[in-house]
Amino acid sequence: MLNEGDQAPDIHLRTDSGEDFRLSDLRGKRVVLYFYPKADTPGCTTEACEFRDDIRGFEEKGAVVLGISPDKPAAQARFKTKYNLPFSLLADEEKATAQAYGVWKEKNMYGKKVMGIQRTTFVIGPDGRIEKIYGKVKAQGHAAKVLENL
Length: 150
What we know:
The chain has five helices and nine strands, in the order E-E-E-H-H-E-H-E-H-E-E-E-E-H. By secondary structure, it is α+β, with helices and mostly antiparallel strands. It has helices spanning 42-53, 55-60, 73-82, 96-100, 142-149, and strands at residues 12-15, 20-22, 30-35, 63-69, 88-91, 104-109, 112-117, 120-124, 130-134. Strands 2-1-5-4-3-8-9 form a seven-stranded mixed sheet. Strands 6-7 form a two-stranded antiparallel sheet. The chain is 27% helix and 31% strand. It has a single domain (12-149), classed as 3-Layer(aba) Sandwich (Glutaredoxin). It is globular, with a radius of gyration of 14 Å.
């Protein structure tokens, strides 16, 4: 389990455009890394669109927004295009990053226990340490709350 103040695990994944991405390449910048369960589902769309709508505020505060889910890069690309998302989406197909960040959890969906992403956001400081963790996020209003606390 990660805690605020811990070094953020490095990430090496493919982006929605199929490019290699490493979190360590953003050292020196503040990163808002939000984990979501599945591209183009109602809650995930709400959350992504709210980050999109507030992107100028994040940029003004020097923060890079990144979304991450277990979807394939092609699904991420469709989601990004459909909703005109101005930030990269990362494809964690093997769920290794979700496990490293402690967000791959047992969930109760319609009375059935399943494994999945627990909607969580990490604010990672320029030094690579976790500044803030937002757990069990409710999609609506979340981006504004993160922006307000930056």
